[in-house]
Design brief:
This protein is an all-alpha fold. Strands 1-2 form a two-stranded parallel ribbon. It holds the Pfam family Nramp. H(+)-stimulated, divalent metal cation uptake system.
C-alpha cells in the first residue's frame, strides 16, 4: 500500500479521495459550497474560515506568560522574534493547505500512506501526546481565567472545561461553519481587548517600531535568547499542520487543475489574513508587557501576576478584567481546534473510527485528568511544571510533522505541477532545519537544567 501511494500520480488521486471521504469531518454538515461563478469577494467568503481555526493555535494561553515576561524584562526588543516566527508559520501552513487541496489527503493520512501501519501507530501516539500537551495549556488557561473572573477554584475550573466537549458535539451536528464563525468572533474579541489594552498602556512608538529591527543582543544575551527560543518553539504547533490539511477539504469546488489552483490561492489569502491577525495579537501581548511593566522591577512571570498588576499599573480599572476575558476566549478557542485535531490524527494514522462523542471525550479527558491531578497534589506550582514538560513533548513531535510536510509538498509524483518550486523548497528546508535545531536546543536546556525558559 505504501509503495503504491508514494508513486501514484496526481491524475489518479480520485482513489485517495475515495479513501479519505470516510473521515470524521464528513459526519457533520461541514461542507461549504463555492460558487462556480461570482466575484472575488464572494469566492473568498466561501473559502474563508479554516485560516481562523489554524490561527487559534498561535494565540493560545501557553504563549501568554512568555510574551508578557519577554516584554516586561526586555521591552520591545523581542518583537522581531514574533515577526520571524509568524512568517515561518505562514509558509508551513500554506504548504499544509496545499497538500490537502491537491492530494485530497490530510497530513496524517499522507504520512500513514508513506510509512505503513507500525510507523503510523507510533506517530499517532506521539501526535496525540502533542495534542494533549497543547490542550493542557488551554485547560489550565481557561481555569485560570475562570478563577480570575469569578473566583472559581482551579480544580473546579478544570472540571468545567470538560463541558466544552458537549458544546462542540452539538455545534458540529449543526454545522462546521458555526464553529468557524464562533472562532472568528472569539479571535476578534481577543484582538479588540488587546488593542484597547495597548492604547491604554501608551507605548513609546519609536521604541515599539525599533523592536522589529534585529539586534545582536538577542543572541548574545542568554536570558533574552532563551525567551526568544521559547517564542519560536511555541509558534508552530504540530497539530495545526494536520488540522489545516484536513479542514481545507471542507470546501466544495471543482477538483480540476484550475479549481485546485483557485482553492490554493484563496486558502493562502485566508490563512495569511488570519495569521496576520494572530501576529498582531501576539505582538500586542508583548507590547503590553513592555509598556506596562518594563523598568518597574515587578515580577510578571505568571499570568496571575500580570492580571493583578495590570489595572494598578495602567490606572485603568477594567484593564485586568478585560485581560482575563481575552484569556478565557483564547482558551475556549484553542480547545475547539485541539479536539478536532485529535479526531483527524486518530483516523488518519491508525484508521480507527469510534463514536464522535466518545472520541472527543477521550481527547479532552486525556488533557483534563493530568491537569486535575497535578493541580490537586501540587497546586498552581504543579501546573507550571506540567506546562514546562508539555513544551518538551511538543518539541519532540514537531519534526515528525514538519519534515513529512516539506517532503510531500516537494514531491512531483504526489503534487504534480503544484510541487514546491526550488525557491520555496529551499526556504522550507531552511525553516525546517532551524525549527528542529531550536527545538533540540530547548529540549536539552529543559532536561539538563529542569528550568523553564527565561
Amino acid at each position: 500500500m505504501s509503495t503504491q501511494t508514494q508513486t501514484k500520480p496526481v491524475s489518479e488521486e480520485q482513489g485517495w479521495l475515495k479513501q479519505s471521504s470516510n473521515t470524521s469531518l464528513e459526519e457533520v454538515n461541514n461542507t461549504v459550497s463555492v460558487p462556480n461563478k461570482g466575484g472575488f469577494w464572494r469566492k473568498l467568503l466561501a473559502f474563508a474560515g479554516p485560516g481562523s481555526l489554524v490561527a487559534v493555535g498561535y494565540v493560545d494561553p501557553g504563549n501568554w506568560a512568555t510574551s508578557i515576561a519577554g516584554g516586561a524584562r526586555f521591552g520591545y526588543t523581542l518583537l522581531i522574534v514574533i515577526l520571524l516566527s509568524n512568517l515561518v508559520a505562514m509558509l508551513l501552513q500554506a504548504l499544509s493547505a496545499k497538500l490537502g487541496i491537491v492530494t485530497g489527503r490530510d497530513l496524517a493520512q499522507a504520512t500513514r500512506d508513506a510509512t505503513g501501519r507500525k510507523t503510523g501507530f507510533f506517530l499517532w501516539i506521539l501526535t496525540e501526546l502533542a495534542i494533549i500537551a497543547t490542550d493542557l495549556a488551554e485547560v489550565i488557561g481557561s481555569a485560570i481565567a475562570l478563577n480570575l473572573l469569578f473566583g472559581i477554584p482551579l480544580l473546579l475550573g478544570i472540571a468545567i472545561t470538560t463541558l466544552d466537549v458537549l458544546l462542540l458535539l452539538y455545534l458540529q451536528k449543526k454545522s462546521f461553519r458555526i464553529i468557524e464563525s464562533i472562532v472568528i468572533v472569539l479571535m476578534v474579541t481577543i484582538f479588540v481587548v488587546f488593542a484597547f489594552e495597548v492604547i491604554a498602556s501608551k507605548p513609546e512608538i519609536s521604541a515599539l517600531f525599533g523592536g522589529f529591527v534585529p539586534k545582536m543582543e538577542i543572541v548574545t544575551n542568554p536570558s533574552m535568547l532563551f525567551i526568544s527560543l521559547g517564542i519560536l518553539g511555541a509558534t508552530v504547533m504540530p497539530h495545526n499542520l494536520y488540522l489545516h490539511s484536513s479542514i481545507v477539504q471542507s470546501r466544495q469546488y471543482k477538483r480540476t487543475i484550475e479549481g485546485k489552483r483557485e482553492a490554493i490561492k484563496f486558502s493562502l489569502i485566508d490563512s495569511t489574513f488570519s495569521l496576520t491577525g494572530a501576529f498582531f495579537i501576539n505582538s500586542a501581548i508583548l507590547i503590553l508587557g513592555a509598556a506596562a511593566f518594563y523598568g518597574t522591577n515587578l515580577d510578571v512571570s505568571e499570568i496571575e501576576a500580570a492580571y493583578a498588576l495590570l489595572s494598578p499599573t495602567l490606572g485603568v480599572g477594567i484593564a485586568s478584567t478585560l485581560f482575563a476575558v481575552a484569556l478565557l476566549a483564547s482558551g475556549q478557542n484553542a480547545t475547539i481546534t485541539g479536539t478536532i485535531s485529535g479526531q483527524i490524527v486518530m483516523e488518519g494514522f491508525i484508521h480507527l473510527r469510534i463514536s464522535p462523542w466518545l472520541r472527543r471525550l477521550i481527547t479532552r479527558l486525556l488533557a483534563v485528568v493530568p491537569a486535575f491531578i497535578v493541580t490537586w497534589v501540587a497546586g498552581s506550582k504543579g501546573t507550571g511544571e506540567l506546562l514546562l514538560w508539555s513544551q518538551v513533548v511538543l518539541s519532540l513531535a514537531l519534526p515528525f510533522a514538519v519534515v513529512p510536510l516539506v517532503l510531500f509538498t516537494s514531491d512531483k509524483k504526489k503534487m504534480g505541477e503544484f510541487a514546491n518550486k526550488l525557491p520555496v523548497k529551499i526556504l522550507a528546508w531552511i525553516c525546517t532545519v532551524v525549527i528542529v535545531a531550536l527545538n533540540i536546543f530547548l529540549i536539552g536546556y529543559i532536561v539538563v537544567t529542569g528550568q523553564e525558559i527565561g
